[in-house]
UniProtKB/TrEMBL annotation:
It comes from the Bacteria. Its EC number is 3.6.5.4. It is a peripheral membrane protein. This is Signal recognition particle receptor FtsY. It comes from Hymenobacter glaciei. GTP binds at residues 128-135, 210-214, 274-277. CDD domains: FtsY. Gene3D superfamilies: P-loop containing nucleotide triphosphate hydrolases (3.40.50.300), Signal recognition particle SRP54, nucleotide-binding domain (1.20.120.140). Part of the signal recognition particle protein translocation system, which is composed of SRP and FtsY. Involved in targeting and insertion of nascent membrane proteins into the cytoplasmic membrane. Acts as a receptor for the complex formed by the signal recognition particle (SRP) and the ribosome-nascent chain (RNC).
Length: 323
């Protein structure tokens, strides 16, 4: 059994489902208000309805390219079925959004299923700009793994921001897991190496490495992340096993720009999208997954430690369309 096979059985509790529903409330309210306007006075899905639907999806920060893809899919269904009522639009839209997320394996644990099979710790390198909730996401991830009985080590390799190092140490104390830190203005790669070494020595299941969130110079960022990877590979040749990009869902199109820059700087393998509870822009989850062909692994829907949830495309879309 792989290290992360427990995810397959890790169904969200009723309390977590309630948190998800509450976290998506602003997006859902905006979504259905716009959808209602699109179909008012109409009985069938015609060109006018599709134009309004397109505007609605763009306003929900699904993104233009993904919106066009969704509209094309619905147009194809309307042409095939000859008659599609506006009453069916909810169901069709839901199915097409799930289909897009499935195409990009969002919510899939495929990458994680074989983790730990080599007997080595599973290494997650976390990237993202300052302010998106990166360090908090790491703390909540550590809580999730630790609560599942896994040995966790954290590495405070965001050494250019004192608050990041201190914050991760506090999270480690709060969750009850060790944090490797050299303090501020030290070599991030050295921190990462020592964290991986400690994880190997203590027989850890998972090692999570924080990294600096600076985008002012993409070349420097690329070089720094590459160096961190190289030194970790001295201990574990195939590390990191996951490069997790954390994005703030409330920033809408700015999150798209950040994803674009980070995917140029390093090979991002999964996404965590935070702060969905404070925004009506939850459609960003759909658009970013589709446009970058990167699976969404986690979403943040609140402040509690349990509010970083394993993303499930069906649960997400069902909650989004729940009336």
């Amino acid at each position: 059994m792989g290290l992360f096979d427990f995810f397959k059985k890790d169904k969200e509790t009723p309390a977590q489902q309630a948190s998800l529903d509450a976290g998506l409330e602003k997006t859902k309210t905006n979504f259905f208000e716009q959808l209602s306007k699109a179909v008012v006075g109409k009985s069938t899905v015609d060109e006018s309805v599709l134009d309004d639907l397109e505007t609605m999806l763009v306003h929900a920060d699904v993104g233009i390219e993904t919106t066009v893809k969704v509209i094309d899919r619905i147009e194809a269904r309307v042409a095939r079925d000859k008659y599609v009522s506006t009453g069916e639009l909810d169901r069709i839209l839901r199915e097409e959004i799930v289909g897009l997320l499935e195409d990009n394996k969002s919510g899939s644990t495929a990458v994680l299923d074989n983790a730990g099979s080599s007997g080595q710790p599973f290494v997650i390198m976390v990237v993202g700009v300052n302010g998106v909730g990166k360090t908090t996401t790491i703390g909540k991830l550590a809580h999730r793994f630790h609560s599942a009985g896994k040995k966790v080590v954290l590495g405070a390799a965001d050494t250019f921001r004192a608050a990041a190092v201190d914050q991760l140490i506090i999270w480690g104390q709060r969750v009850g897991v060790p944090v490797v830190s050299h303090g501020m203005n030290t070599d991030p790669a050295a921190v990462a190496f020592d964290a991986v070494q400690k994880g190997v020595e203590m027989g850890a299941d998972v090692i999570i490495i924080d990294t600096a969130g600076r985008l002012h110079n993409k070349v420097n960022l690329m070089n720094e992340l590459s160096k961190i990877k190289r030194v970790m590979q001295k201990m574990i040749p195939d590390a990191p096993h996951e490069v997790l990009l954390v994005l703030d869902g409330s920033t809408g199109q700015n999150a798209f720009l950040q994803a674009k820059e980070f995917t140029k700087a390093t090979e991002v393998t999964a996404l965590a999208i935070t702060k969905l509870d404070g925004t009506a822009r939850g459609g960003v989850v759909i658009g970013i997954s589709d446009q970058f062909s990167i699976p969404v692994r986690y979403i943040g829907v609140g402040e509690k430690m349990t509010d970083l949830q394993l993303f499930d495309r069906h649960t997400f879309v069902n909650s989004l369309f729940k009336k």
